[in-house]
Amino acid sequence: MYSKRVAMLLFMSLIHVALSLPNTVPRARQPIVTLRNGTLLGLQSPTYEQGYFLGVPYAPPPVGELRLRRVTPPTAWNETRLATSYGPWCYGNNIGLLGYSQTVPGVEYSEDCLQLNIIRPQGQEEMPSCLCFLNYRLGAFGMLAGSAIEQDGLANIALYDQRQALAWIQENIRQFGGDPQRVTIMGESAGAFSVGFHLLAYGGRDDGLFSSAIAQSGGPYTEGAVNRNSTKREADFNAVLEATGCQGTNDPLNCLRQVPATKLNAASVGLPVSMVIDGQLIANSSQAQLERGQFIRVPLLIGANRNECTSFTRLIAPFPINSDEDFSNIIHNTWAGGVIPSDPMQAWSGLYDNEVNDPSIAGLGTVAPNPGTAYGAQYGKTSLWLTDVQFMAGRRFAAEAWAAKGVPSYSYFFDTVPASVNATELGAAHFQEIPYVFGNEDGVGWDGDPFPADRNLRNKHKRLARTMSRMWISFAVNKSPNFHQGR
Questions:
Q1: Helix (H, G, I), strand (E, B) or coil at 283
Q2: In whole angstroms, what is the distance from residue 300 CA to residue 357 CA?
Q3: Are the beta carbons of 80 and 32 closer than 8 angstroms?
Q4: How many CB atoms lie within 10 A of CB 303?
């Protein structure tokens, strides 16, 4: 009945985007699916013409002795399982996403969070999509590194969670009306880098887990998401041991498995994402693999926002940024990981001066080079450089790698400033395309309405949202975003 449905699995940016869906779903006849592991009873919404299966486990709860271990397939259940309410959020830390504070009332956090939320259209349509939102382990629970972790083969746990979810979808999505041969993986920010890791997994080995990929603000060039500094990884690991009282114990991993989850979570505040080259899922550097064509050759939709790093500059840079010396210090200390010779630094500085100050280039869009004394004269230039290094360069590099092998890739550039964001300080910042991609015209879940109050402007933003959401669906269905003009 639903044989033409494509499935989209979404790795979002350390948040539970599914909560932008209605918290209460009007009930009609409740849908039932029977899987290999048991039967699920979901919800049907006549208002949205959708069926919901919420809190569906794709693995056993990673608690107790299963904490800090690789995921395994789920166990079976005998009774019909209610899939009618969202499960808990995985433990993690607020990363201060602009417009989305993550302060959702009544949200429960738990280690028992390895679940999917599955939304499918009601009835039979020509080519509808089935959406699957994924929870995976974060912070110290899924991204901890250090010699003890790495020697036991327990690095990159978060990615193995995602891999298991993909395997679960291959086994079960047909029961929800999805086509396992037409799975699109999609992610934003950390989720986009997760997409990138899976495109490069096991040296580019194609296990048939997905047939296309969407990467928003991130992607297959994952150098910035891999921690190559073993000394720093060990220092971070020791800091977690110290904070949890596990430093000096005979078996630190066993100790970490016994501390309260809230204590372990608190110990990971400020902990950097520490994906490491493990010789398995992350087999090599992304740059080397892309240059050699060692990636899964499926169509790719990839893009970034004009002012990706205005928000990150505010988070990581000492303000004000007034001089070329301030600019170079941020580059050295924050991203470069070492000393850059003076000649390229001077060349960069001059190029970005032109990018910021030449009206014909308008590299910053609506963002002022210096929004005020608290920011400094080099704020705009610094944010632009960081945007290029962390997002734009990798997007181009990946698109070129795809083109070199004759694999379709499509690139977008998001340049719209939501109404809820300060245009001169932040502009089209990181994460701000999300309400447009998901067609969230009512701003559900956002701190402020992203669409302008002025009716004419609001209609323009709504048209953009409808176009973007249709293009994303077009890509999932047709492997091209350019079939979005039909009904």
A1: coil
A2: 34
A3: yes
A4: 21
pLDDT for the residue 487 = 53
Tokens of 230: 């073993």
> How far from the centroid of its chain's Cα atoms is residue 51's Cα?
25
Pairwise CA distance, residues 255 & 247, whole Å = 9
Q: How far from each other are the two terminal CA atoms of the chain, in whole angstroms?
A: 21
Mean per-residue pLDDT for 257-273? 91
Other CB atoms closer than 10 Å to residue 1's CB: what's the count?
7
Architecture of domain 5-298: 3-Layer(aba) Sandwich (3.40)
- Considering the entire predicted model, what is its pTM? 0.93
**Which residues, other chains included, contact 141 with Cβ-Cβ below 8 Å and sequence gap of 6+?**
62, 67, 68, 90, 91, 111, 157, 261, 264, 265, 268
Instruction: Please list the active-site residues.
Output: 189, 308
Tell me the per-residue pLDDT of 196-210, one tens digit each, with 9 for 90 and over.
999 999 999 999 999
- pLDDT tens-digit map of 346-382: 888 888 998 888 877 889 999 999 999 999 999 999 9
DSSP string computed for 296-322: ----EEEEEETBTTHHHHHHHSPSP--
For residues 87-93, average pLDDT = 90
The percent of residues in the chain predicted with pLDDT above 70, rounded, is 90
Instruction: Supply 169's token pair.
Output: 């979808």
Sort strands 115-121 and 300-305 into parallel, antiparallel or unpaired.
unpaired
Give yes or no for a contact between 237 and 133, defined as CB atoms under 8 angstroms apart: no
Q: How far apart are the C-alpha atoms of 392 and 385, rounded to whole Å?
A: 10
Domains of the chain: which residue ranges?
Answer: 5-298, 310-382
For β-strands 81-82 and 129-134, DSSP reports them as unpaired
Q: What is the mean pLDDT of the chain?
A: 89
